[in-house]
Structure formats: C-alpha cells, structure tokens
Amino acid sequence: KMDDDDDDIPQLSSHTLAALQEFYLEQQQREGMKTSQGFNQYSIGSIEEDWQLSQFWYSDETASCLANEAVVAAGKGGRIACVSAPSVYQKLKEQDGKDFSVCILEYDRRFSVYGEEFIFYDYNHPLNLPENLLPHSFDIVIADPPYLSEECLKKTAETIKYLTKGKVLLCTGAIMEEQAAKLLGVKICKFIPKHSRNLANEFRCYVNYASGLD
Questions:
Q1: Total structural domains in the chain?
Q2: Measuring CA to CA, which residue among 92, 101, 150, 87 is closest to residue 123?
Q3: Beta-bridge mates of residue 195
Q4: What is the pLDDT of residue 53?
Q5: Is pLDDT of 37 > 50?
Q6: Percentages helix, strand, coil for the chain, rounded to the nearest 5?
Q7: Residue 85 sits in a domain of what CATH number?
Q8: Parent domain of 147
Q9: Using the 8-state DSSP alphabet, how is residue 172 labeled?
Q10: If 83 and its partner were Cys, which of 56, 75, 143, 192 is the partner (CB 3.0–4.6 Å)?
Q11: Is residue 137 scored above 60 in pLDDT?
Q12: Rounded to an integer, what distance in angstroms lies between the CA atom of residue 69 and that of residue 118?
C-alpha cells in the first residue's frame, strides 16, 4: 500500500532537476565570490533591485558622485539623510571613518540589515517618523522619490522639508522639474545621473544650493 502512495508524489523531470542544480551552484559561486573578495555589505547590488518596489540602483559612478557631493555639502561632522536613495547610502558607508553621519529612510525592510541607521519609511505617511528624528536635524537630505508622480513628490517633499536644515539634493525625472521647483525651490543640475540599468525616463538631479554638480 505504501508503494502505491509513493507514485502520487510528483517527480521533477531530469531537465528541471539539472536546471535547479545549476541555479543553486551559481548561487553558491556568487556567495563564494562575495566572501573571497572580502565582500562589503554596503556594496551596490549587495541587496538586489526589486522592480515591484520601483527600485533602480544608480551606476557606481553616479552613486559615488552623489555621495561625495553630499559629504561636501554636509560639511565636517555633518549629518546626511538618504530618503529612498539606498545606493547613495551604501556609497557613503563605503567611505568608512569619514567625518559625517548618515541614515537611510527606506520602505524596503531588507535594508534593516544596516541596523540603527535604517528607518522604515513609507512616503504615503511622510511625517510618520521616529521621535528621535528631530526636525531640521540634517545638514543635507538626498532624496529619490520611488514614483514619478506629483502625489509621490509632494509627500516626499514634506519629509525632506521636515528633516533638512536647508540643503536638498533631489533625484527624479526631468518631467518633474516644474513641480520640484514649486515644492522645494530646487533647480536642475548639469550633472546627468545614470542607473545600472537604463531607465526609459530622462532622469535628473536638482539642488537648492551652490553645488559641485554643475
């Protein structure tokens, strides 16, 4: 009777099994490479993009450029907030030991691996922030609203205005230029940000201070 029951258990075809084994092997090799390269948990790509959350990581060069700009703008001992801009946060953390502090406000809880610097953030509730995140306590806020919509920019702008002492570095689509100027008083920069995967929409940076991005 037991033997009859065993026949009901679905068996994977040899082709599927081989494909699965290949997948696991590749995964193990990737993990092995990370370890052998002295893998940095802050490297861009250490947490993979989730397109369902409208995540598109910057290219390495763009993330470095924006991180360096934020450090200069924040000044010695400055505080930097990255709102929905995890790849800039990761680049900032790679500059270990530099004289600034940084936190990441992000909806994706995978970034909670970064400990106390991670703050869960949902742009739909722009001021639903921890009590210890005091108003106007950051020298610069760098933000990349997840969606190209007026509503998303408007709500993210509320968060930015709450957090910043004044300086704002915004990354969003070129089509948002008018709205960005109206909501945050920012102007478009000459610097063109790039993503690790090309986006269909033209993407730009905006600032409200004299920056190195021009």
A1: 1
A2: 150
A3: 58
A4: 44
A5: no
A6: 40, 20, 40
A7: 3.40.50.150
A8: 51-207
A9: E
A10: 143
A11: yes
A12: 21
Mapped onto helix, strand or coil, the DSSP state of residue 85 is: coil
Per the domain annotation, does 40 fall within a domain?
no
Report d(CA 14, CA 28) in Å as an integer: 21
Is residue 105 in a domain? yes
Q: Report yes or no on 37 lying in a domain.
A: no
Backbone angles phi, psi at 179, to 5 degrees: -65, -40
Q: What percent of the chain has pLDDT over 70?
A: 74
- Token pair for 66: 């924006």
What is the DSSP-derived secondary structure letter of residue 39? -
**pLDDT tens profile 39-64:** 455 444 445 544 444 456 788 899 99
Residues 68-89: b if buried by 16+ CB within 10 A, e if exposed: ebbbebbeeebbbbbbbbbbbb
pLDDT greater than 70 at residue 31: no
pLDDT at residue 23, rounded to an integer: 64
Q: Who has greater pLDDT, 169 or 201?
A: 169
Hunting for tokens 């004299």 — which residue is that? Answer: 210
At 118-130, the pLDDT tens digits run 999 999 999 999 9
Query: In 3-state terms, what secondary structure has residue 206?
Result: strand
* Contact of 126 with 179, CB cutoff 8 Å: no
C-alpha closest to that of 47 among 100, 132, 106: 106
Query: Is residue 150 assigned to a domain?
Result: yes
CA-CA distance, 136 to 151, in Å (whole number)? 23
